[in-house]
Amino acid sequence: MGRSSSTKDAQALFHSLRSAYAATPVNLKIIDLYVGFAVFTALIQVVYMAIVGSFPFNSFLSGVLSCVGTAVLAVCLRIQVNKENKEFKDLPPERAFADFVLCNLVLHLVIMNFLG
Amino acid sequence: MAIDGNLHYFLLLLLTPLLVVRHFCEDFTEKRNTTQTKTNFSHISRMARSLAGFLALFLFVLICGAASLFQPISDSHRSAALELFTPTHGSFKSLEETYEALRTFEVLGIGKKPDVTATACRSISETLGLLTSTPKDLFYALKANSIVKCKINEKTSEGIITRLNTAVNGASSLLDFYYSIGGLVLIKDQTSKADVYLTDAEGVFRSVKAFSQSDGRWRYSSNNPESSAFAAGIALETLAGIVSLASSEMDQSLIITLKNDISKLFDSIEKYDDGALYFDDKLVDGHEHQGPLSTTSSVVRGLTAFAAVTAGSVNLPGDKILGLAKFFLGIGVPGDAKDFFNQIDSLACLESNRVSIPLILSLPSTELSLTKKDSLKVRVNTVLGSNAPPLTVKLVGAFSSGSKDASLVESQYEMQELKFDAETGVHILSSLPKSIDVGSYTFVFEIVLHESEHEKVYVTGNQTKVPIFVTGLIKIENAEITVLDGDLGSIETQKKLDLAGQNVVSLSANHLQKLRISFQLTTPRGRAFKPHQALLKLRHESKIEHIFVVGNSGKQFEILLNFLGLVEKFFYLSGRYDIELAVGDAVMENSLLRAIGHIELDLPEPPEKAPRPPPQPVDPYSRYGPKAEITHIFRAPEKHPPKELSLAFLGLTILPLLGFLVGVLRLGVNLKNFPSKAIPATFAILFHVGIGAVLLLYVLFWLKLDLFQTLKLLGFLGVFLVLVGHRILSHLAAASAKVKSA
């Protein structure tokens, strides 16, 4: 009894979450997808390392950090672009995007240097 | 040389206890090798080396400063001559070389010389026939011909005489005169015609004399200010030629001035410590500079040629001629053909010169054995080894090399005349003076010519000092080995030792006892003998060695080992010790290194703080052996996963990208916001191209560029990107602001 109700609750919760998320603007959804893409790529590399070993360790680190760094930067971009977020109300999204691009370029310069 | 032999002699005896040296006068370096192989106590030799160096130097100065031995030309020169002068393809390179070779063979009296007569004759007649031959060519051709003696036809020789006469008249330098006049002298001897003479001999003489300097040296030409002794020799030879070519008697005053010049030249002669005299030109004049050998040789040639043609004697002290002879003999056998020729030619000039003929005293052996009753043999020869006139050799003194001042031969009674053996040509002293015992000595000989006329012709040097080594069997007597009781000194065991035989003794002792070894050494003359080495060695089973010097008082040699005092030195090691005794000296014919036997030592247990015995080197020679090979160890390569797995994961990493793209498509993303106007659209495209370019640059950075190249390019790209990005993004911002406000 309790179990079915909890399943139902969970279903209800999931449903409401989904409907709430559907209201999110498309550009934020794109960023979310991008973050997911980056995190999954990092995960695959971690799994590879767990199976094979960490031999070219700097290559592994640069691969994972590239993904994680990109994901973090994308999250930052999402925070700034979000209209609901009052804190960055005055900041134009174009400015945030420029920051995102610049940070990504600097990050990847370092990553490439470290790749070996 | 004898000097090297002596030096080596002392090194050898200090390094090796057991040796009998037979030949001293051999090459020093060769002997050194034998020293190393003969060394028995290698570590003693290390100890002794510094001492040896000092002693050797000391003795070297004592002996060789005073005396040295010169040997006349012998068969070693003859065999060397045949090796040095070998014709290639039946002839020598030039006529000059042909002359030098033939002259050397002639002087040394070598019969089995290579036959080059035919080729030499051909080349001589070719040179003489050519009109383009210089006086120098003619000179050497005629010189060679003076030995080969080929026929020169009358017409050719007449032509040569005319040409050489013209050359004499046109000569301006010393060498011009030398070659042309030398040529004339040679052709005068070689043709039947007697009308070869100089018309104006005195004039030519004066013009050559004009090159002379006040110090007896000469210049090559009037415009060359430098003078040399080498040129002086050439000038003397030239002037001798002029005198012999003169048609009438020369002005005597010219000859007298020249004789003065010669004595001035001999004032500048230089001297070695062993009495050898030589000329050397100090000036450094590039290619024309000659060494001491050719300079001295040139002077000797000039001097003897001049003395041969002038009446009256050239007043030179005989010692100087003897000194020159010693110089030429002292260089041994030169390895260079030119030097060899100079040596032999000069000695031949000295052999029959009119100034004074040097006589050289030499000894077949400078090592005499008292035991074998060797007689002292002395040979007196001319420089080329031919017999001397009748003479007597006297031994006037003998000095022990230790004490320089007291002669061991007292001049009144013991001044000994050596008996001459006409058959062998050797002067023999059958028995050495009584005062001569084993050891090294310097003997002083005096040569007395029988006929007083000979004294003007020959020069012997007043006294000749010769280093002599007298060896003998040393008597070893009363050799005993004794074990004594410590407190009372009473004898526990006593054994006779036969050091000449092979018997061994075995003893035993404890730390409270003493070991005594004693023996007496007597020379053949019955005197006490102190060898350079008298050493006792005890060697433990573990190869640890202890060496003791056996001291002496007079004849008696004795060593007393008190084991109580030695336990610490012996590292408390009990057990069997082998005993070895070494008695050695260079003049001791029966030097010995004998294993006497062994002693069983019973020493107390070591206390806690006792010194440990040092580790023995495994083999002292292994230090110089090859080192262990160095192998380079490389890091083992990391384990690589199978290629398929890596490729599979590469594929997997693409999956999230695909998912991202699919997700984007499902969201219905479009590019409607992309600027539609031309200018912003261009900037937008440029912006994306710029980002792409930076990413491409990163890929290149990864693949091949270095950081500096990358940053340089990135600087340009960055500026471009900032400009373009600013334009497009501000355009977009303005557009969205317009939408918001509207």
From TrEMBL, chain A:
GO cellular component, one term: oligosaccharyltransferase complex
Primary site of residence: endoplasmic reticulum
Any matching Pfam family: DAD
Biological pathway: Protein modification; protein glycosylation
Highest taxon listed in the record's lineage: Eukaryota
Record-stated family: Belongs to the DAD/OST2 family.
Subunit record text: Component of the oligosaccharyltransferase (OST) complex.
Name of the protein in question: Dolichyl-diphosphooligosaccharide--protein glycosyltransferase subunit DAD1
From TrEMBL, chain B:
UniProt entry keywords in alphabetical sequence: Endoplasmic reticulum, Membrane, Signal, Transmembrane, Transmembrane helix
Localization (cell): Endoplasmic reticulum membrane
Major site of localization recorded for this protein: endoplasmic reticulum
Ribophorin II second domain span: 359-470
Any single GO BP term: protein N-linked glycosylation
Pathway: Protein modification; protein glycosylation
Residues spanning the membrane: 6-25, 51-70, 645-669, 681-701, 713-734
Membrane topology: Multi-pass membrane protein
Database matches in InterPro entries: Ribophorin_II_2nd, Ribophorin_II_3rd, Ribophorin_II_C, Ribophorin_II_N, Swp1
A GO term from the CC aspect: oligosaccharyltransferase complex
Record domain Ribophorin II C-terminal: where: 634-734
Taxonomy, superkingdom: Eukaryota
Residue stretches making up the Ribophorin II third domain: 477-601
Record flagged with keyword Ligase: no
Domain Ribophorin II N-terminal: 73-351
Subunit text: Component of the oligosaccharyltransferase (OST) complex.
Family membership noted in the UniProt record: Belongs to the SWP1 family.
Free-text function comment from the UniProt entry: Subunit of the oligosaccharyl transferase (OST) complex that catalyzes the initial transfer of a defined glycan (Glc(3)Man(9)GlcNAc(2) in eukaryotes) from the lipid carrier dolichol-pyrophosphate to an asparagine residue within an Asn-X-Ser/Thr consensus motif in nascent polypeptide chains, the first step in protein N-glycosylation. N-glycosylation occurs cotranslationally and the complex associates with the Sec61 complex at the channel-forming translocon complex that mediates protein translocation across the endoplasmic reticulum (ER). All subunits are required for a maximal enzyme activity.
Protein name, as recorded: Dolichyl-diphosphooligosaccharide--protein glycosyltransferase subunit 2
Species the sequence originates in: Theobroma cacao (Cacao)
Top-level taxonomy: Eukaryota, Viridiplantae, Streptophyta, Embryophyta, Tracheophyta
